Amino acid sequence: MAIAKAERLMNLALCLLGTRRPLTKRELRESIEAYIEAAAAASAANSASGSGGDEAFNRMFERDKDDLRELGLIIETVESVDGEIGYLARRDSNRLPPITLDAEEAAALGLAAKVWQQARLAGAASGALQKLRAAGMPVAEDPYDTQPAGALEPRIPVHEAAFEPLMLACRDRRPVMFDYRKSNAARPEQRHVEPWALECWRGHWYLAGWDRERTAERVFRLSRITGKVRLRAGAYAAEVPDHVTVRETVERWSGETATRTARIKLRSGHGYPLRARALHTHPLGDGWDELEVPYGHGLDAWLVEFGPDVVVLAPDELRADVIDRLRAVAKG
């Protein structure tokens, strides 16, 4: 059904763009096969009155005309001398202006295409660049491409299966449902979310959105989404903010904006992310080290991920929070 409608809209658009004079409904009905078939089927079903074909065509044509206008096609309605209505889409009114990019803008687009090389968007990005170059985009030396072969290049890893459906849900403003495993939980929980934006931070993708059941803004790490992302019907219940601060929210929850410190005991040879964040480290012996790390909201959830390799020494409130989370995991 979707393919048939797309083909019908394409044929109507080509007719309106290809004509030099306005075409009447009758002429369009006789030129597009889908209209002929639909009208014939409606007439056969309503042979007693004989008017079913006209009504079916009129409804279909008006819907198709509205759909094309919504897609951006400018369709003119012209009345002839004898009062007959015709339609056409002038090419000069539906032609995009010339694309003009300077060297820096072209280099930025090239860099963006390289960044998405690992995502499924790579094909679309590459095709877009080829079209822009064919249209005259400068292809001079890229100021961002000065590294020799084999040097590091910018990449955004997109390995999570949830990335593409969530990206489309953010674009189309579609609520979603997925199973999410928190860092301190043994099993995933079902979440109903109105997705706002996706952002990559420190090699991980995060989704910001409105959690319907918790009636609050939440940020979800895509690597903790299990199973398929399912689209839900209906409109958003919460207002989407003008600016979604995904990175700031993740930083706050992971302790990046911490103003205090905590002391932990870490097993030697383990917990390298914690060691990278440590302000001070000194060995305790017996296979353990003591670390001083930034302490902010969410540090307890992060420490739980390291299991028996971490012991909280201070402050007492952080130690209590970690113990509570470990007990919750143990209970399942």
Give a verbal description of the structure.
By secondary structure, this protein is α+β, with helices and mostly antiparallel strands. Helix content is 39%, strand content 23%. It has helices spanning 2-18, 25-31, 33-45, 52-70, 103-115, 122-134, 163-172, 246-253, 272-277, 299-304, 316-331; strands at residues 23-24, 76-79, 85-88, 176-180, 189-201, 204-211, 216-221, 225-231, 260-267, 280-285, 288-295, 310-314. The strands form three sheets. Strands 7-6-5-4-8 form a five-stranded antiparallel sheet. A four-stranded antiparallel sheet has the order 10-11-9-12. A three-stranded antiparallel sheet has the order 1-3-2. Strand 2 and strand 3 (85-88) form a beta hairpin. The longest helix has 19 residues, at 52-70. The relative contact order is 0.07. Mean pLDDT is 80; it is low at 140-152.
Give the helix/strand layout.
Elements: H1 2-18, E1 23-24, H2 25-31, H3 33-45, H4 52-70, E2 76-79, E3 85-88, H5 103-115, H6 122-134, H7 163-172, E4 176-180, E5 189-201, E6 204-211, E7 216-221, E8 225-231, H8 246-253, E9 260-267, H9 272-277, E10 280-285, E11 288-295, H10 299-304, E12 310-314, H11 316-331
Antiparallel strand pairs: 1-3, 2-3, 4-5, 4-8, 5-6, 6-7, 9-11, 9-12, 10-11
Helix pairs in contact: 1-4, 3-4, 5-6
Q: What's the short story on this structure?
A:
The chain is of the alpha+beta class and 332 residues long.
